[in-house]
């Protein structure tokens, strides 16, 4: 099984992140204005703890000396040498065709039959009312390039 429930939506408010370990891989799950992204906590440069870095916005400029942060998207800056990565694609900001961090699809699903955490034991089960949404990371999925 490659799908993992990692948090309740309310536990990862906009602008925040959680670090989780899934199948032995440390992964950061980010909420950027209600949109969720997941990337491996291992910088492709020198394996720094990428997900501990600053989360910022892409910068646009129409002419030298003027710039503005865009309203959409998330850029994650590695705390070791400040390489930057687009959270939506995992691509490096400076060399997007050659350098990227592994990223994973994230969906928000209502709790229910498809959102379970498997375990080694079986217990007697009872009906449960579902009231929250959950953040689910798919380690087997690929993001569109
Ligand atoms: S290890 Fe991340 S920029 Fe160098």
UniProtKB/TrEMBL annotation:
Domain of life: Bacteria
Domain (Rieske) ranges: 4-115
InterPro entries xrefs: Rieske_2Fe-2S (IPR017941), Rieske_2Fe-2S_sf (IPR036922)
Single Gene Ontology MF annotation: 2 iron, 2 sulfur cluster binding
Keywords: 2Fe-2S, Iron, Iron-sulfur, Metal-binding
One Pfam family this sequence matches: Rieske
Keyword Cytoplasm carried by entry: no
Keyword Lipid metabolism: no
Stated name of the protein: Rieske (2Fe-2S) iron-sulfur domain protein
């Amino acid at each position: 099984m490659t799908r993992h429930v990692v948090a309740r939506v309310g536990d990862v408010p906009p602008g925040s992140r959680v670090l989780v370990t899934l199948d032995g891989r440390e992964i950061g799950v980010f909420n950027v204005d209600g949109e969720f992204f997941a990337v491996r906590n291992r910088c492709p440069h020198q394996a720094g703890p990428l997900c501990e870095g600053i989360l910022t916005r892409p910068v646009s400029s129409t002419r030298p000396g003027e710039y503005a942060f865009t309203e959409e998207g998330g850029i994650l800056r590695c705390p070791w040498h400040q390489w930057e990565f687009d959270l939506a694609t995992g691509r490096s900001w400076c060399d997007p065709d050659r350098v990227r961090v592994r990223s994973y699809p994230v969906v928000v699903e209502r709790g229910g039959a498809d959102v379970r955490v498997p375990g080694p034991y079986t217990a007697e089960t009872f009906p449960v009312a579902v009231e929250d949404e959950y953040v689910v990371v798919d380690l087997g999925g690929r993001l569109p390039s």
